[in-house]
Amino acid sequence: MENGLRESRIQTVCLLILCAVVVAASLYWLRPVMIPLVLAVFISLCLSMMAEVLTQRFKFPKVLAMGTTLLMASLFFFLVVTLISSSVRQLASQAGAYQDSLNTIVENAIDKLPLERLGLSPEPPDGQNGDEPLKPTISDLSAMMKMPLDTIGSMLLSTTNTLLELIQKSILAVTMLFSSSASMSRMSSESS
After folding, report:
1. DSSP letters of 59-87?
2. pTM for the whole structure
3. Would you say residue 61 lies in a domain?
């Protein structure tokens, strides 16, 4: 009897581990869909609470409370998008200054860190034959750390596009969830 109980527990633990791995893998593969959906559900819950406060506390009709809530949420999202786009535009216009500052920081770090202890030599070795692997030098490291200006600009652009796409999908999902909750509340009020 005890042996059967022990095997049952081991089987349960193994199934839980397998289930956790499958859920984690599916969430990883579904993250382009799940992130906006979870964000939209969260925002929808917040907006429905706001509409509920408007209907119960301030005695707004449900349709007016929903419209007011959607208008305020749209205004909030518009302000967030405007803030993000102006910040990125300002950052992109000063990308050259940021690049120079980054290069200065990298050069100062290379000068102050004891890179010789890590196997980096300050000068390329003389008389190195072709059979030996090339040893990196500090000047090679410095040259690799200097990012071209267009790389920084493309990183800023892709980050901005990702944020704006996430906000756009969230607005769409919130509108859909909010309209479905409004129709469900209408159906429940008609049935009672």
Report:
1. ---HHHHHHHHHHHHHHHHHHHHHHHHHH
2. 0.54
3. yes
Q: Angle 146-152-155 (CA atoms, 0-180°, nearest 5)?
A: 135
Residue 104 DSSP SS3: helix
Residue 18's SS3 state is helix
Model confidence at 15: pLDDT above 90? yes
Domain holding 88, by residue range, is 36-124+133-186
Q: Which residue has the tokens 């007011």?
A: 68
pLDDT of residue 148: 64
Secondary structure of residue 101 in the 3-state scheme: helix
Q: Is 132 helix (H, G, I), strand (E, B) or coil?
A: coil
Residue with tokens 């090679």: 140
Condensed to tens digits (0 to 9), the pLDDT of residues 43-81 reads: 878 888 898 999 999 999 988 988 898 889 889 888 988
Length of the chain as a residue count: 192
Calculate mean pLDDT across residues 165-181: 73
Q: Give the burial string for 157-184 (b: 16+ CB within 10 Å, else e).
A: eeebeeeeeebebbbebbbebbeebbee
d(CA 52, CA 47): 8
Tally of domains in the chain: 1
Q: Are 49 and 66 in contact (CB under 8 A)?
A: no
* 136 Cβ contact list (under 8 Å, min separation 6): 119, 120
